[in-house]
Amino acid sequence: MCLAIPARVTALLPGDMARVDLAGVTKEISIGLVEGVAVDDYVIVHVGFALARIDPEEAERTLALFAEMDRLGRAEGTDGNEVLG
Fold first, then answer.
1. CATH number of the domain where residue 70 is located
2. What CA–CA distance (Å, rounded) separates 32 from 48?
3. Which of 6, 12, 59, 73 is most buried, most CB within 10 Å of its CB?
4. Is residue 84 in a domain?
């Protein structure tokens, strides 16, 4: 199962690329599918591509849910993937 997750844009790079922060992990992604992306925007990322911009509050809620699923999975002695399918 693949997920699209929110990430904060930290830098715009040449060639429709951007650097994003994915929960503390820095990645370079393509922003060629989304117009008007700026530094500090949140985007939904799937397999290295930004699919859409997302409201910062919605991004924070989604990231908090992922963190809670991870916490619950660790408390149960699993890696959390059982929750995701």
1. 2.30.30.140
2. 11
3. 6
4. no
- Chain segment 20-57, per-residue pLDDT in tens: 998 889 999 999 999 999 999 999 999 999 999 999 99
Q: Is residue 83 in some structural domain?
A: no
**Amino acid occupying residue 40:** D
- Three-state DSSP at 54 gives strand
- 3 vs 42: CA distance, rounded Å: 16
Residue 48 lies in a domain: yes
Give how far Cα 39 sits from Cα of 13, 57, 65, Å: 10, 16, 24
The reply to whether the predicted model has a pTM over 0.85 is no
**What single DSSP character describes residue 55?**
-
**How many domains would you assign to the chain?**
1
Domain that holds residue 73: 5-78
Q: How far apart are the first and last CA of the chain?
A: 7
